[in-house]
Design brief:
By secondary structure, the protein is of the alpha/beta class. The chain has helices spanning 6-12, 18-29, 40-49, 54-70, 72-75, 83-91, 122-140, 157-160, 165-177, 195-202, 208-211, 220-223, 243-256, 258-267, 282-286; strands spanning 92-96, 106-112, 146-151, 183-189, 214-217. Strands 1-2-3-4-5 form a five-stranded mixed β-sheet. Strand 2, helix 7 (122-140) and strand 3 form a beta-alpha-beta unit. Helix 2 (18-29) packs across helix 3 (40-49) and helix 3 (40-49) packs across helix 4 (54-70).
Length: 298
């Protein structure tokens, strides 16, 4: 894993004062429950996502690392050689696209490859998704915004039945409260007839900030208004590698950097025994009131 160049990132975002980020890093390293190995580059992601507010960044960082510690099904045992992750790699394609939209936004696409619902496990799929996203961001550095695309082609009611309500709640909590990105768009393409059932699963846990950037597309031409056709894979009418080919690039990266990903996992967890004050639990996470990190809205 090669972390994005810090000098290049600060050059692209001259409004960020490096001295402020370094103060943030000093604060992080002063927290006994957070890893001493948390880097300036990793801290920069939170500072940028929270629009350069030191206090908000501190809160979101702690929520992020606490979530990664306690949400076992998504963030623990990040060993890509484990059979459940190997199965997920065969079941779904997760593809960070090269290039960016005209606004500078980066795009990631996820879709089913194995349509057999009995091989689909939502928690494992989300674990793999987060691993790919983490690796991508680590190498890519901070960006003006990110766009998430979920392709529902081949999705059946059998897949939906395998998504637990609590799992959905936990994942959307992480996405809305803890993810160190500026989420500009969340798109569903190839809408299925039971889209209302999918939304019924998501709606109780979505805040207005996420709802306002959620888009559903029956017509791929409508989707092109948000993500230019030319930057998409060939199976979406674009110029990029087919999805099932492009995914292998990142899956190979995970496998080749297995040790580094396990170190990443450790670095992004907290030691509750060393936390000042009372240790936190999963129930503490979901008891948090307010919305510390507002999603970007264009």
């Amino acid at each position: 894993m090669k972390e994005a160049d810090l000098e290049e990132q600060y050059a692209r975002f001259p409004e960020i004062k490096r001295s402020e980020v370094q103060k943030f890093v000093e604060w992080i390293h002063a927290q006994p429950h957070i890893s001493d190995h948390f880097s300036e580059g990793e801290a920069l992601h939170f500072f940028h996502a929270c629009r350069y507010s030191m206090e908000v960044a501190k809160q979101v960082l702690d929520i992020n690392l606490t979530a990664r510690t306690h949400l076992d099904e998504f963030f623990v045992n990040l060993d890509c050689e484990r059979p459940e992750l190997r199965r997920a790699m065969k079941t779904i394609s997760i593809v960070p696209l090269p290039g960016a939209t005209p606004e500078g936004y980066r795009v990631i696409v996820a879709k089913l490859e194995d349509l057999n619902a009995s091989n689909y496990n939502f928690a494992d799929a989300m674990k793999l998704y987060c691993m790919i996203f983490d690796y991508w961001m680590y190498e890519d550095g901070i960006q003006p915004g990110h766009v998430i695309v979920i392709d529902l082609k081949g999705c059946a009611l059998g897949h939906l039945a395998r998504i637990g309500l609590l799992q959905m709640k936990k994942f959307l909590f992480y996405l809305q409260e803890a993810a160190a990105i500026r989420l500009i768009g969340f798109h569903f393409v190839n809408i299925v007839p039971f889209m209302d059932k999918i939304m019924a699963l998501m709606n109780p846990f979505m805040k207005k900030e996420l709802s306002s950037v959620l888009h559903m597309h029956n017509d791929i031409n409508d989707f092109y208004k948000f993500v230019p056709r030319e930057m998409l894979p060939k199976d979406y009418g674009g110029l990029g590698e087919e999805t099932n080919v492009a995914r292998e690039i990142y899956y190979k990266k995970l496998l080749d950097n297995r040790k580094e990903m396990l170190e990443f996992e450790t670095r992004h967890q907290v030691n509750e025994k060393l936390r000042p004050g009372k240790a936190k639990t999963v129930s503490d996470l979901f008891g948090i009131e307010g919305n510390f990190k507002k999603l970007d809205i264009d």
